[in-house]
């Protein structure tokens, strides 16, 4: 399958040769790498994308989950073109800014908002706000979770699980080089779906005079397949963080606007003190946001925290976000996602049963995946014990060779858009079925 794919990517290979001259690895971001060379894209339309070799794919990767409105959506196009004609950047507020904040407030139940340009900026600013609000330095995160590429969160993301330490004392491990040694211990990881371990660690940190400012977490993990919260877990986390004077941040960069109209916050019914967003918010343009309670966001309003950025609230991005929220991500869009996701999950589950394949389907709204594990994954340890990266890779190759573009590796596999249809989902299921058939009948 690997050779078959490479043979279709001739022009991409040529481009890679040129691109490498002045662009590190020939790509704009390390997450765009692929062995032996990257796939260069020509264009997208609706649910489909075409590479520079003219290969056509249904796009389930969808720009790492940003493209829920589909490629080249005319509604977004109109909003952006209108805005372009009036000027694209002033670094001054406009009407779209507060209309979008009002809409987000309604959806997430948090009254105060600010904008950024990416998910990383959102989590970076949210953590600073939490630190300022609590007057504390250490922060907590879930072991294995990704929250962007700044120092405070490039900690304890992916490690051999024999290095991670025991459940009650998971270790702070830098993810890649260049993270100052002095900042590493300020980020303390805890296991997902384990409220007892969380409280145990908080009490210990308090005893050492290091009470944590916040817990930043995805309410439903999205980067080790999809791991939902066990019943009662989020409620317990809410209670514990409140009792210990910590800010609870739900990182909704992936979940917000995809798994439901009000993200994980509304879907699971637990209100955090802050949410961070990006990806699907900007209608395909780079835009992030932070929402919070009056109390927590008071440190921004008082001027204690500088929440700033030249391009924050860039008019093109906010105009796209407004059109996206008002005209694209309507209640009908979420019904559409639910219908398609059910089709995908039912189809994949049937394949899993038919071939006795080690895995199960899980999904919400526009997001889903087949988790390649014989047992249920509830946290990083069960993920590492169960995950089959060989199957992930094989599944990706089968899909790519059958015109289905999906996220490689251990990320969640599919993000739907409003332009996806039953035919796209059936192509996905058929590619998966072929792989399961070939693998399980050998
Ligand atoms: N938080 C989460 C949950 C994410 O999944 C990501 C990106 N995958 C980020 C933050 C960082 O977002 P960005 O890549 O836009 O900086």
UniProtKB/TrEMBL annotation:
EC number(s) reported in the record: 5.4.3.8
Gene Ontology molecular functions: glutamate-1-semialdehyde 2,1-aminomutase activity; pyridoxal phosphate binding; transaminase activity
Taxonomy, superkingdom: Bacteria
Keywords: Isomerase, Pyridoxal phosphate
Cofactor(s), names only, from the UniProt record: pyridoxal 5'-phosphate
Entries under InterPro entries matching the protein: Aminotrans_3, PyrdxlP-dep_Trfase, PyrdxlP-dep_Trfase_major, PyrdxlP-dep_Trfase_small
Family in the record: Belongs to the class-III pyridoxal-phosphate-dependent aminotransferase family.
Matches recorded under PANTHER family: GLUTAMATE-1-SEMIALDEHYDE 2,1-AMINOMUTASE (PTHR43713), GLUTAMATE-1-SEMIALDEHYDE 2,1-AMINOMUTASE 1, CHLOROPLASTIC-RELATED (PTHR43713:SF3)
Name of the protein in question: Glutamate-1-semialdehyde 2,1-aminomutase
